[in-house]
Amino acid sequence: MDQTLDAILQKQLDTIQRIELFLDIYKCKEFVAADLNKLKEDSGEAAEKLSRTREYLETDRKDVCSQFIKIMQKMRRNELLMLHLWEVGPHSEAANAKPAQSDTPKSMPLKELQNDNPSKMHLTDYSKSPFATRSKSKDIHFYDFDAEITEEEFETIPKYLRGRMQLSELIQFLEKDVIKCFEEKYTLMYKHRKAVSNQHDLTAWKDYNSMQAKFPDRKFITQDDLLHKSGKALDKKSYAKLQMLRYLHILQEVRSEGTVYFLWIYSR
């Protein structure tokens, strides 16, 4: 009971002190009002500058991480290339032949890996490699179609577009449907003409190279390519995923002469 009375008494004393403080401030209001308003403005400006600094640092961190990843990827590709050259060097005819008169070393072709899952390569390297001259296709992946969707990027997609979809669903659609479609198309399209013996593949090869003239410097697939890849018509959920990939600047949709094209525009 005594503790309750002490608490009530202390509360009243605190209230009295706050009232006295208010009265003291009120008496000198005309002298401190300008300073208080200036302090409020300065606080708002400081908060805004702090927010801008935080955004800049976060953007800069992402850029640095992206550059670091690219450098590591280049180093890894160079390591693989050196291993290939070292492996084929002692057994190649060039190694047993007499040295050329010129001091400029001749470039050596990439050796075909002996497993079913060759390392990734660029399309330009693929077009010059043994893979492009052989009729038997292999499951090849390309750095040209690498893409990453972070949790932060996924959260920027408007809620009305995301709905209840999870990031993992979008990534699976991107990797298993979209990127796979790009890889299969350009694996065939970049083959040498003599390496395409199947009549169905030859028709597709001609169509692909013919359509490429519409976007000579771009990589793209069509809505029909996705349809043939999945074996069924695109449903509402698939269209929503394509819209999200467009929002994230991975794909760009272009319509021309009744055909829907999806251009690869992703870059880091």
Automatic annotation (TrEMBL):
Per the record, GO CC terms? mitotic spindle; outer kinetochore; spindle microtubule
- Entry-linked InterPro entries: SKA1, SKA1_MBD_sf
The GO terms this record gives for MF are:
microtubule binding
What is one Gene Ontology biological process annotated in the Swiss-Prot or TrEMBL record?
cell division
Cited Gene3D superfamilies: Ska1 microtubule binding domain-like (1.10.10.1890)
Q: Which family does it belong to?
A: Belongs to the SKA1 family.
- Descriptive protein name: SKA complex subunit 1
| Species assigned in the record | Anopheles coluzzii (African malaria mosquito)
